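To: structure desk
From: M.T.
Subject: fold request, one chain
Message: Could you run this one when you get a chance? Sequence is below, nothing fancy, just the single chain.
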Amino acid sequence: MEPSGLKAYQNLDGNKINQYSFEQDNVKLDPAYKKKFTKKSWEFFESQAPYYKKTATWWVMSAKKEETRLRRL
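Reply: Done. Structure tokens follow.
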């Protein structure tokens, strides 16, 4: 690696690593949010592809405010 590349790697901001949904390994929907689903909506969600469930779950759980999480859900 070139010295400029090493310098850039050493100066990485730790807050900007693993911030995207595809970088997340284990995203779980909080049980309190699972209870808010109706039976029909939960069945639909569970029938979706794994990538969709992971992305949608991350989108809901990544919100900082509770009101935003509920709105996204």
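Reply (cont.): The radius of gyration is 17 Å. Let me know if you need anything else for the meeting.
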